[in-house]
Structure formats: structure tokens, C-alpha cells
Amino acid sequence: METITVTIMIILFLLALVFIFSTALLTPLIGKKNLLFVILLGFTVGIVGGAFFIAPVFDDIPDMTRSIYELTSNSSEVIGIDVSTKTNVTSFIENTKKIEGVNSVQSSAITIKTDQIPDSWKTTFESRIPALNSNITSFNIPSNDTMLLTVKDGSNPQDAINQIEDWMMLVSGLNINYSIVHVSVSVDSANVNSVESQLPKGDIVITGVNGSIENKVQSVKAAMPNKSDVVILCGFLGMLTGIAGVFIDSIAEAWTRIRKRIKKNE
């Protein structure tokens, strides 16, 4: 939601409160016995105004907070991306590095899904596969159909996957069903949204954004009350506005007396 839209929504809610207050000022004409009517009117208008004007703005608070932090911070954020090896992972990494605002791109880990691996083969795979490619830095088989490995920064993860697939088929006849490369993209905080919009659609999934700004935004989200509670609060605010309009004369008189008393004691 744009700033001008947010401003208009807030102004409209304030106008709703002005309407409640103005209606309450008519109580000398409609009678104090209608105080209950004013309270109900204030609560109802406050609820409606909160639901239509404040709740939509409330939804945008995290994004507005992120924008403010981005303008005042020079830190970097890390975009997590899962890239299917159905695509050319090397080309994806190289093309992503060229996007304005990207500081670095690294393949942090690789998940490979395979046919069911017999227990008799697991030990063989864990001892032999790391030696297939000198760029493999870690390798393990957490379950009978999953392999996890990491490769050196700057190396081609697709090469490692292809070598593993060829070797597996040769010695055991087992297939790789699919594989995913987990990629970390370091981005200037002010360019996160721009970079995300330029990433190719299709065989990639953005798994999340991490960094100091994202942590602050998540803290704001955690501290925010439930939206329904905000709407109800707006209802009570409308009710209090109505009560203030009904008793404005009494409130003004009390305030005048307090000021005179303060001046007298000085």
C-alpha cells in the first residue's frame, strides 16, 4: 500500500471519529437519556472504521517497517533459494550475480532424492561418493532415499550431481529422481524486493530472507497485537470519542478549574 493511500485511510478514520464527536455534541438537543445511543453509535462506527480503514493499514506495518530500515541501513540480507537441477544451475548462479544489488551467490547445500537405497549400499555410498569429485566437502545419507552434500564455493554443483548419478547407475542401478541446490544470495538490504522480482520464475523457490533487517521486521510482527483486537480497540476509541462529545462541557469546566487551582498554588 502506497504512503498516500495509508494517509487517506487514516484521515478517513479520523473523519469517522469527528462524525461521532459531532453527533455526541447534539446531546443537549436530543437529551442525555440518549447517551446509550451515542455510545452504541460510537462503538459501531469505530468498529466499521477500524475494519475498513485501520486494519488494511495495520497489515502493511511490517512492509513499512522494512522500508524504513532499508533506507537507514547499509547491511546485507540473504535470500534463500531452492533451485531444481532441471534448470541449468550454473547459468542461474552466474545470471543472478549480474543483478544489481547482489553481492555474492553461493550454493550452500544439495539435496538429492533417489530410489530406495538398500542398507547394504549405504556404507559403500558414504565412503565412495565423496571421492568422486574433489569439490564435495561433505556427504551423508540421512534416510534411505535422501542424500545431502555440500560443495566448495565457486564449484559447479551440477557436475557433482552428474558424477554421482552416473556412478550410482553404474555400480548399483539406482536412479536419482530429482535434486535441489540450496542457493544463498547476499543482497544489499535496499535491493531485496528488486532482486526477488528479477529472479526467474519456474523451477526456483524462494525459501526465505534472513538478516538484521528481516530479524527486526519479525520482531515487529511478533509484537503486533491481533488484527481483530485492533478493530475492537477502534470500537472502544469511537465509544470514548462519543462519551467525550457528550460531556465536553463538563470536561472543559473541570479542566478550567484544575488550571486555576494550579496557578493559585504557584
Automatic annotation (TrEMBL):
Segments traversing the membrane: 6-26, 35-58, 230-255
Source domain of life: Archaea
Assigned keywords, A-Z: Membrane, Transmembrane, Transmembrane helix
Name of the featured protein: Uncharacterized protein
